[in-house]
Fold:
Amino acid sequence: MPEGLVARLILGLLLSAAIAGAGVWRRALTWGGVAGAVVVGTLIFAFGGLAWAIPMVAFFVAGSVLSALGRERKRALAAVAAKSARRDLVQVLANGGAATALALAAGSTGQAALLFSAYLGVLAAVTADTWSTEIGALSRRPPRLITTLAVVLPGTSGGVTPLGLLAAVAGGLCIGALGWLSLLLDTGPARLGPVNALALGALAGLAGSLLDSLLGATVQEVRWCPACQVATEAAVHRCGTRALPYRGWPGLNNDVVNFLASLIGIPVGVLVVALA
Structure:
């Protein structure tokens, strides 16, 4: 085992447990989500280091804060969404799984510089999608389906708003900026200039958000509540009626779409740095 890895694992465990505990207190995580957050946080800190951990913490904290904005107005989205605002284990892994794998690869291969760019791309993609969802839900303009531009109900998979797209870019920029700043605190081999980091964050964030919406509008599994006559992502609608298959691929739910959309950050992150 590499020297110092045990110490980093212990420190990462303590830090991630503290942050996850705050998530429970803020009602941002279920207990399953806590377990996932602790595993993800511990591994990223241990194998990536401080520069890798800071953007991940920012993603989680910002997402938790934004989910509380306009809580009453967002209640209407519960008719569509399969899950509540509290992240469970699967949601945590869908958003943090690819990032964790990249941190493990960096610690095992020594290719930290290249993999850190891919890591930032993944985090920018999931952060942008989260910001787009949470802030876009407050838009006064109704969302439009990304494929046809038809007006759809708030919360509909594949629906986008100008406010949501701006939020996606802002979320990506935030991760890019934090990624560059966090490197100043790290002595590892990864180096990334501020302009490249901001471009990486903005492009990967927008790409991730758009891909998530495109998948949501085309192949994501959506069901239909025959009692309420509305589309829903839940197998059982909140009225208690079992929802029927409506469109999309069976099993390709929102968690799978989130994970697939996060992967677009890998090539975007690598290309932005390579072409700089």
Observations:
- The CA atoms of residues 215 and 257 lie 7 Å apart.
